[in-house]
Amino acid sequence: MDSDGDGFITAAEFKAALQGAAHGRVSDENAAEIVRMADLNRDRRISYREYCKLVR
To answer: How many whole angstroms separate alpha carbon 25 and alpha carbon 32?
Structure first.
């Protein structure tokens, strides 16, 4: 998911991963909403810690 290797997942990276896994279309709004739900410190990206909490 972290396509640029910076240690964070952005909405665009999350969207690309979901589209690949779902073999379908994911809207920008849906991807952004998932990032908003997981983004505990409100920096508009998901850290490894935030991701772990999201998938638990």
So the answer is: 14
